[in-house]
Design a protein that fits this description.
The chain is mainly β and 137 residues long. It has a single domain (9-109), classed as Rieske Iron-sulfur Protein. It contains 1 helix and 9 strands, in the order E-E-E-E-E-E-E-H-E-E. It has one helix at residues 111-116; strands at 17-22, 25-32, 35-40, 54-63, 66-77, 84-86, 103-104, 126-129, 132-135. The protein starts with 16 loop residues before the first strand and ends with a strand.
């Protein structure tokens, strides 16, 4: 698994998204009330960019004429044909058994943690002789 630094938290305000290419794949990162989610930015129906779609919530009914609107802004609607996908899972509610968009794990870490990283630079011996700095390869 390869991790990518895609943005600072402030670059993707709540209710917005950012589209980018990672390893040749279009990926959309979404901010839903401070939580970040990432989906493959391609609707499985005909390939539209989900990042360009509208954000909606979930409407459920327990009985005729009674509706509950929940999870506002946690679903993305395909801009071409209106298919909706859960930002958390990529699951479709129009055909949940067969249709979903690939989702990716997202984490938010402080810059200091990234700076520490597992990075190791190659080093070489250095010496000073008669006012000259020498590097031995």
């Amino acid at each position: 698994m390869t991790r990518f630094v895609v943005a600072e938290v402030g670059e993707i305000p709540s209710g917005s998204s950012k589209r980018l290419m990672l390893k040749g794949r279009p990926v959309a990162v979404f901010n839903a009330k401070g939580e970040f989610f990432a989906l493959l930015d391609r609707c499985p129906h005909e390939g539209a960019s989900l990042c360009r779609g509208g954000r909606v919530g979930l409407t459920r009914s327990s009985s005729p004429g009674t509706y509950d609107y929940t999870r506002a802004g946690e679903f993305i609607r395909c801009p071409w044909h209106g298919w909706e996908f859960d930002l958390r899972t990529g699951q479709s509610y129009c055909d949940p058994a067969k249709l979903q968009v690939r989702s990716f794990k997202v984490s938010v870490v402080e810059g200091a943690v990234l700076a520490e990283g597992p990075y190791v630079a190659e080093t070489f011996p250095v010496s000073v002789e008669n006012n000259y700095v020498l590097v031995d390869l």
